[in-house]
Write a structure and sequence with these properties.
Blueprint: H1 2-21, E1 25-27, E2 30-32, H2 38-56, H3 65-69, H4 71-74, H5 79-85, H6 90-99, H7 106-126, H8 131-140, H9 143-146, H10 151-163, H11 165-168, H12 172-183, H13 195-198, H14 205-219, H15 222-233, H16 241-244, H17 249-266, H18 273-291, H19 302-305, H20 308-316, H21 322-346, H22 348-351, H23 359-363
Antiparallel strand pairs: 1-2
């Protein structure tokens, strides 16, 4: 766990420094985005670098590590055929690009980590002034270490994050293209097209009830959903323990709590369109995790929706009483830190961290 702790410490040091250099303007209490200064940008780069370094130079960390470490064998080949059939060609294209420069297998892991972390943190940070909180939420909600597994799906989630505000801006064609690009990395991304029609609704009891009803319907129709997934993948879903095991209740609660908080804060207020958008995102994330709570396989939908926590919460927790705001943030960060520590420390594929330069000893090769 030492590697994780050091990563977080350096991240907090540089992000806190970046925050002190940022000139903040507000309009009726809401943050007004301004271009970051060179000093702020440099410090933010320094804050994100530890995340890239630890993720990119890890070795045998993450359940799916070996599949992506040997990506050329598992996902390589037949690139043009995959492009023509849209059979998730994204990862194969990246493999071919990496192969142009090196045959080093560690380069696959580094490239995938770089292309996941940099665009995601860029989107999260560029429209906010609360850098440290955002990065801590990104880590403690599991979005960072989650990318050590399910690499293709996290790449797809990164693409969706880059284009998620097309929903807010009512640009359906651009959002549909975004989903298509994400689909090229993981076919499950196609379901995120429905967000365009869900996340623009108002926050009221009627819409919350309708979403709750949809959640119940999904939770009771797993067989239909698995059949649809099989159709997308052109093969049946194996109904093994992974498909039928329940999700850890702490993970479900951690994803539901931000939605409950957002509803409590804004149900009697008139949020801005942007705030409404992110409240809807938090509600959708909670609904998705509840609906998929009896299948760890289906719960991977949370890879797409959980990013609304670091993206949305900082835009919603803004009080005139700054002491109360800071106290609430301390409580939120501490609770998510406990969740993060529990999750990372209890999974052998995560807590036994090794660096790529240790592989010669591990593999017994020179």
């Amino acid at each position: 766990m030492t590697s994780y702790f050091l990563t977080i410490i350096f991240m907090v040091i540089f992000s806190s420094a970046a925050q002190t250099t940022r000139k903040v303007e507000t309009n009726n209490g809401l943050f007004v985005s301004k271009p970051a200064s060179k000093a702020t940008s440099a410090l933010l780069v320094a804050a994100v670098l530890p995340l890239i370094f630890t993720a990119g130079f890890r070795y045998e960390v993450g359940t799916d590590f070996n599949a992506y470490y040997k990506a050329d064998q598992v996902f390589g080949g037949n690139v043009w055929e995959k492009i023509k059939t849209l059979h998730e060609p994204g990862i194969s294209i990246l493999i071919e690009i990496v192969n142009l420069f090196t045959k080093e297998r560690g380069a696959y892991i580094f490239t995938f980590s770089l292309l996941t972390i940099v665009p995601t943190t860029y989107v999260l940070l560029r429209r906010s002034d609360n850098y440290t909180v955002i990065l801590l939420l990104y880590v403690f909600t599991g979005c960072w270490h989650g990318s050590f597994n399910g690499v293709r799906q996290y790449l797809a989630a990164t693409v969706l994050m880059l284009g998620h505000r097309y929903i807010l801006d009512k640009k359906f064609v651009k959002y549909a293209i975004t989903v298509l690009i994400a689909y090229c990395f993981h076919s499950s991304a196609v379901v995120m097209l429905v967000l365009y029609f869900i996340m623009r609704g108002k926050i009221n009891y009627r819409n919350i009830f309708l979403l709750a009803l949809g959640t119940i319907l999904v939770a009771g129709n797993y067989e239909t959903i698995f059949s649809f997934i099989g159709l997308l993948k052109d093969k049946d879903v194996v109904m093994d323990t992974y498909a039928t095991a329940s999700v850890n209740i702490l993970r479900v609660l951690a994803n539901c709590a931000p939605a409950v908080l957002a509803i409590a804060l804004y149900i009697k207020k008139d949020p801005t369109p942007e705030q409404t958008f992110y409240i809807n995102g938090l509600i959708v994330n909670a609904a998705a995790m509840i609906a998929a709570s009896n299948s760890t396989y289906l719960a991977r939908i949370g890879i797409y929706t959980s990013l609304f926590i670091p993206a949305g919460l900082p835009k919603l927790i803004r009080f005139e009483d700054k002491k109360m705001e800071k106290l609430l943030w301390v409580i939120i960060i501490v609770l998510f830190a406990i969740f993060w520590y529990y999750e990372v420390s209890t999974y052998p594929s995560l807590n036994q961290f090794k660096w790529v330069w240790e592989r010669n000893i591990i593999e017994g090769v020179s």
